[in-house]
Amino acid sequence: MQSQAIGIALIVGAARDWGSFDTDNALSYVFVLGLGGLLAGLLALELYMRRSASVSSPASPSSG
Description:
Elements: H1 2-14, H2 26-56
């Protein structure tokens, strides 16, 4: 999942070059916003999974 987030971040970063996009076409904006939303969703899922893993993990027994 992290590799997907990195790949999408690179694609969204490449979208900063608006000269290569047809700005008159609405689908260009849909494409960039969709990838940005996908990136945000992946990051939110990653945070959720990390939090739920730390909450649900049992406490380690203390030695002694």
